[in-house]
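Is NAP placement plausible here? Inputs below.
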Amino acid sequence: MPAVLIDGKAIGLKIREGAKARTAVLRERGIVPCLAVVLAGEDPASLSYVSAKERALAEAGMESRDIRLPASTTEAELLALIAELNRDEKVHGILVQLPLPAHIAEDRVITAIDPAKDVDGFHPVSVGNMVLGRPGFLPCTPFGVLTLLRELHIPLAGAHAVVVGRSNIVGKPLANLLTRKDVNATVTICHTGTKDLARFTREADILIAAAGKPALIKPDMIKKGAAVIDVGVNRVPDSTAKKGYRLCGDVDPAAVEQAGYITPVPGGVGPMTIAMLLQNVVQAAERRTI
Ligand code: NAP
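Reply from A.M.:
I modeled the complex. Tokens:
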């Protein structure tokens, strides 16, 4: 039997409706959750991510402060802008779209954001809080993946989760969240130094692919019936497509015959990332008003 296709759009919508309802409560008190969205440069993928986030914020009744900067913006200019947004009482969250132009140190920019406004969850204070299990903002994509698994009631306690990828924004935080006591999965992290990747992926009850490599995970690398979460978003050239490329994940589409559950790309993890961002923004606004 082919895998159940996970509808990230539908689950994401449910989360977005929740954020919208919380926003309505804040609005009644005259507070409008506001996210400052900073984009430096004109990377086409970043432009489309930023527009999708801004559309979702508007639909939920939130505001976005859209700040577009030229690629030539200096690090000092960007840091001065962050300092200004940190001070601005009307701004509840700050999102700096990555990647930044090569001459700007992402690390310094992220660290400059007030952790109380760090709705992306990338600030070292947010990361520390996550690792220690303290309240704080969780990074949107890993939080979205965990929420998907929970919403689908996929058994996590005692399950073996294999995460392919160890980036700071996806692989590492996701592995961390899955090992939390209230989740209780046993986690293996794979990366480019892993010898014989398939040996590990075949053992996974839950396989999370976050490598950014098109169709890296082949059907014979998946345990029959496993839940497969494909985080990858890769642009592959396609002359038949209007834009000249199509999006594909890190999992070979033929894996649908082997997996028990699988997320499509697009329409799986992507909509969850946006939904969790909205949830973090409304949470930031609520916290400031307590
Ligand atoms: P990244 O920073 O490039 O990290 C990729 C990770 O995968 C690295 O840890 C790398 O290992 C590992 N890797 C690469 N090739 C591998 C291989 N052949 N075997 C085993 N491990 C391998 O990427 P990222 O930012 O985490 O993003 C990963 C993917 O998710 C990308 O396609 C990105 O577009 C997508 N993404 C999607 C969303 C969404 O909302 N849907 C959000 C964020 C990212 P090393 O550490 O050894 O180099």
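Short version: The pocket of NAP is lined by residues 141, 164-167, 169-171, 190-194, 197, 210-213, 216, 231-234, 269-270, 273 (CB under 6 Å).
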